[in-house]
Design a protein that fits this description.
Layout: E1 20-23, H1 27-34, E2 50-54, E3 66-76, E4 79-88, E5 92-96, E6 102-109, E7 111-116, E8 120-125, E9 128-133, E10 140-144, E11 147-156, H2 158-165, H3 174-180, E12 188-192, H4 196-206, H5 212-245, H6 251-265, H7 274-281, H8 285-296, H9 300-318, H10 323-329, H11 335-346, H12 350-363
Helix pairs in contact: 4-5, 5-8, 9-12, 10-11
């Protein structure tokens, strides 16, 4: 998967040709370490809201990376944003551990290459927008070229997607639906064009004035503008693709999609990953997702979750199993995650549903 930039060969090459290797912290570790640092007098944010790191200051290894700055702002427990406006003296390569944050990056200047396990190398230069996620246990190597870098990166938890999108989270494309439902999600990357309005929002954030709460309010508004623009673009793109997907399916492909649906139904206790279903259908993941939605008028994630919730409700009504046992039987390792999904689907916790159902049965003559 490569954007319209030239490829950067041999992505990870620290120590060669002036390229520096750094140890990358998770975004959560970055924030925790920042809260322990003394604030400079020129910090534009209040303590506990955001902090600015200047590229011309030495890090703990005595290194400087250039000029400019990088801001990290905490807007909510499940939403953070980084604003970068810097000029690097040399290229930097880093390995990032997987973590539970979806990243939406909006660049108006810079050169970056990513190497994500399972996805391959992805290269960008100039203006671009992309969403990516690599779960715990999957590392991401990143190469950032020397020169100007101007970007905004939004970090959000799966809970944020549900909190702000509500029922529309079911319309998210590809692996984002699984991520929003707190399901097992594979590494993913969605590449989008950077629109003029997106670029202006990035520029506005980079050049934002003010300090303290007023600055934080402005940054939050612009962050939500960028998030909404990217998600709306994904919605429109998928609608257009789904309209033509059904017309491109052969009879053989339709039969295989029916087999995929049956396979999901027969494996509710161990929901198969998209990559497994794609292999079974002999399709790539994108065609599988689009074809399934076009043929059955619901996404794979929607179908799987609906069937699992219906099975769970049936078990709650007609068995003496505990909530934990029922959770395992419909593919949830942790009862709390199952209870959250059940309440999201039916509007009631499973234990409460079970008690009310049995009370109704006992009252019948």
């Amino acid at each position: 998967m490569t954007s319209n930039s030239s490829r950067v060969p041999n992505l990870a090459r620290p120590g060669e040709n002036g390229i520096h290797s750094v140890t990358a912290l998770t975004i959560s570790d970055h924030w925790r370490s920042a809260t322990r640092l003394p604030l400079d007098c020129d910090q534009p944010y209040d303590a506990g809201v955001g902090y600015r790191v200047r590229a011309d200051r030495e890090n703990e290894y005595g290194e400087k990376f250039g000029t400019g700055y990088s801001d990290l702002v905490k807007l909510a427990d499940d939403l953070m944003v980084r604003i970068t406006n810097a000029v690097a003296d040399h290229a930097i390569t880093a390995t990032h551990p997987g973590e539970n944050w979806l990243k939406l990056e909006f660049w108006i200047a810079g050169k970056v290459s990513l190497l994500i396990e399972g996805l391959g190398q992805i290269d960008f230069e100039g203006r671009w927008c992309f969403l990516h996620w690599h779960p715990r246990g999957v590392s991401k190597e990143e190469w950032v070229g020397e020169g100007e870098g101007m970007a905004v990166t939004i970090y959000c938890r799966p809970s944020f997607l549900h909190r702000v999108l509500g029922a529309q989270s079911a319309l998210l494309p590809l692996g984002l639906r699984q991520l929003a439902d707190s399901e097992r999600a594979d590494s993913l990357c969605e590449i989008l064009p950077l629109t003029q309005s997106m670029g202006k929002a990035v520029s506005d954030m980079v050049n934002a004035g003010g300090t303290g709460n007023l600055r934080a309010i402005y940054i939050e508004a612009k962050t939500m503008e960028l998030f909404a623009s990217a998600i709306e673009m994904l919605f429109r793109r998928d609608e257009e693709q789904e309209l033509s997907a059904i017309n491109r399916l052969s009879n053989s492909e339709i039969d295989r999609l029916h087999e995929v649906r049956e396979h999901i139904l027969q494996n509710l206790s161990q929901p198969p990953r998209i990559v497994e279903l794609a292999g079974k259908a002999c399709m790539n993941q994108q065609k599988l997702q689009q074809g399934f939605k076009a043929l059955f008028d619901e996404t794979i994630s929607q179908y799987s979750i609906t069937r699992r919730m219906e099975k769970a409700r049936e078990l709650l009504e007609h068995n003496d199993l505990t909530v934990s046992q029922i959770a395992l039987s419909v593919g949830y390792e942790f009862a709390n995650n199952f209870s959250t999904a059940f309440k999201r689907h039916f509007g009631i916790l499973p234990k409460t549903y079970q008690m009310k159902f049995r009370a109704r049965i006992n009252l019948k003559p």
